[in-house]
Fold this sequence. Notes:
Layout: H1 13-22, E1 38-41, H2 57-66, E2 71-73, E3 79-81, E4 84-89, E5 95-100, H3 114-125, H4 143-147, E6 159-163, E7 166-170, H5 178-181, H6 192-198, E8 214-220, E9 224-229, E10 243-247, H7 252-260, E11 266-267, H8 278-281, E12 287-300, H9 310-318, H10 322-330, E13 335-336, H11 358-367, E14 379-384, H12 392-408, E15 412-417, H13 419-427, E16 433-439, H14 446-449, H15 466-476, H16 481-499, E17 502-513, E18 519-520, E19 536-537
Amino acid sequence: MFFPGCARRIFSRAHLVFLLATGALIFGCSRPEPPADLTIINGAEPESLDPAIIVAQVDMRVVQGMFEGLTRLDERAHAVPGLAEKWEISPDGKIYTFHLRTNLVWSTGEPITADDVVYSWIRALDPKTASNYAGQLYYIKNAENFNTGKIKDPSLVGVKALNRLTVRVELNSPTAFFLDLCAFPTLYVVPRQAIEKYGDHWLTHKPLPVSGAYELDSWRLNDKIRLVKNPRYWDAANTQSAIIDLLPIETPSTALNLYERGQVDIVWDKGLIPAELLDVLLQRPDFHSFNYLGTYFIRFNTTRKPFDDPRVRQALALAVDKERIVKKITKGGEVVTSDLVPAGTQNYTSPAGLGYNIELARKLLAEAGYPGGKGFPHFEYLFNAAASGDKIHESIAIELQQMWRDALGIQMDLRQVETQVFWGVQSRMDYDLSRSSWIGDYNDANTFLGMFVTGDGNNETGWSNARYDELVHTANETVDAQKREKLFQDAESILVHDEVPIIPLYIYVGVNYFDTNKVAGVTQNVLDDHPLRSIRKIGRGTNVESRESENAAPQTPGQGKE
C-alpha cells in the first residue's frame, strides 16, 4: 500500500469540499456529541472510504473498522476467520470453500449473504470501478481477463455463491497468501443495496450499511472522522471502544502537542514526530519503534527521455549516498537498502542490488551520451510535503539534488505539491522522478514485486519487462518455497540491478506513540496493522456499548441463518 496514498477514482479535495458544503459528509453534526472513548491522530485526510478503490494506509485504517472480509487480521497481523467462520481447501490448493457465519447482518439489519461477497469481488474487478488493487484478485480464475476486458461475463470469474452462506473460490494455482488477501480491503464485503441506489455517492448517505465493527457517524473535512460501535457486528461483544475519533493531522508539532495535553490517545507514524526531537523522544517509554515491511524508494517515469535508458537510471542509482540520507535526515534507525523487498519478509532473502559507486555512475552516464552531465536535460523531482508539516520528503529531495549535481553534473529541479494532489499526479505519470514508498499488504515478497508487473495499477513507472512478468507469475504458481524464492530473486534482480525503474533508499522503522498504562490492544507487527476493534482506553472497561445509531434495532441472534 502507499504510505499514505490514494487511488485513481476517488473523492477529489474539491469534491470533498462540495460534499462538506452540502452537508453530505456531516452526519448528525447539529446534535451535541458525547466525548470519544478513543482519539487517534491518523495522518492525512483520507481520499475515500470505498474499499474497492483505496490504496492509502490512512484510508485503510478507517475502512478496516467499517468493513470486513471473509478473513480479518488479528492483533499480530495474522489472517483469522472473519465473515467466514471456517473454510476447506482442496488437496491441490486451488479450491477454497468458505462458510459464512449464520449471524451476519449489515448494520442496517439486512442479512449478509454469499451473493454479497460475489458482488463485492466482481465490483472490485469491474473495469468501471478503476481499482488500483484489482490485481489482488487476479489469483482467481478469469479475474484478470474480466478486469482487463478480455471477457465480459462476470459469471466466468471463479467466485460463486453455492447457497446463501457458502462461497466457492477457484484459483488459477495454489496461492500461499490467499487467506491474507481475503483480509485485505479490496476484498471486503460492501453493501450492494446502497451502491446500486446511490452510485458513487453511496458513502454519503445515512444510514450507511457496514459489515464491520464500526459505523460511520460523521466525516468532517479537516476536523475528524467519528466511528461508533456497530451493535449488529457478529463480534460486537468483543469490540473494545464505543466511539473512536480519527483526526486528519499532518503537522508533527501539532500532533505532539495534542498528545502531550492528553487530547489524543494514539499517534500513528514516525512522520508525526518532530524531526528535531526524534532522538530524544525515542528514548521515552511511550514512543514505540518496531521493524516492519516498508520501503522508501524513487520512481522513474521510464516513458520520458532520458529515463527510458536503463544506463541513465543505473547511473542515478549508483550516485546516491543512502547512508548520508538516513544519518543526516531520517535519524530513526532506518536501514539503507539496494532492494525493494525488506529483510524479514517471510521465506525470502533479496539479491544484491546496486550499491554506491560514483565512478561507475559517471561511466554509465557517459555511455548513455552524457559525459560529465553534458547535454543532460533539466528534470523534475516530484514530492509532497505540507508547508508547515513534515519536511522529510523535501529534505531528501534537496539532498538528492546536491548529490546528482556534484557527482554527475546534472541539474534536478524540485516540484513540491500538496499531498492530496501528489498521488493523482503520480498516478497520471505527470512526473520525471517521484518520491515513493510501499508498505507490505501481507507478509510475502509478492506484495512488493507484484506491483511492477506490466499493467499493475500500482506500477506507475511505465516500465514493462516480459521476463520479469514471467518470473513473478511463475513464482506465484510455484508451491515449493525454495524454488519460489529463487524465481522472486531473479525477478527482483531485474528490477533493482538491471533495469532499475526504481531506486530503493531505505527500509522503514515504524514508530508510534501511546502510553501503555492508558491504552491497551495495540500490538506491534511487521505490517503495522492495528485493528480498531481491539483497542481501548485502560480504565474504561471492555465491551462498552455504543449509543444506538438512527434507525438501528436490537440485534436478533441468528438473523440471516438459513
